[in-house]
Amino acid sequence: MRPSASGRKRGERELENRRESIQERCRATGLKLTIQRQVVIEALLELPDHPKADEIHAVVAARMPGISRTTTYRTLEQLVRVGVIGKACHPGSASRYDNRTDLHHHLVCMECEAMIDISDTRLDRLPVPDTSGFGFEVHDFRVQLRGLCRRCSAQSRKEDSE
Ligand SMILES: [Zn+2]
Ligand SMILES: [Zn+2]
After folding, report:
1. What kind of architecture, by CATH, is found in domain 1-98?
2. What pTM does this model have?
């Protein structure tokens, strides 16, 4: 299905907003936007759905031949550390990078690993249990709702009816 013209425009505007907020966060942290960082950020913005480091590296390497995987990975981790980009970690799968750093949650497909952003103020306000018994200090949390995405649930319905 092709996105409608207005859908495409909305997507572009959204991308532009995310690009601006990343640049804003770079300025706020005093991080210099080197060409290398710009190329990495641009790849993260363009790739759909919380890409993995190696997916980002493939795009970066096509634009900056000679850049090593280690450099791309290091750049990503540095951007995460200063809070310019986000990182979503789920047990048992590779880290995924997020061009959003504001509080939001994820719908994770157990079948194809699609990761969909959702914002919900009720999830933002979930009560955090007392973890002092573990000597653990909670700084932040994200809710991960797991299940099947639209495509995979349609696929499994189709297989069931065959
Ligand atoms: Zn899926
Ligand atoms: Zn996200």
Report:
1. Orthogonal Bundle (1.10)
2. 0.77
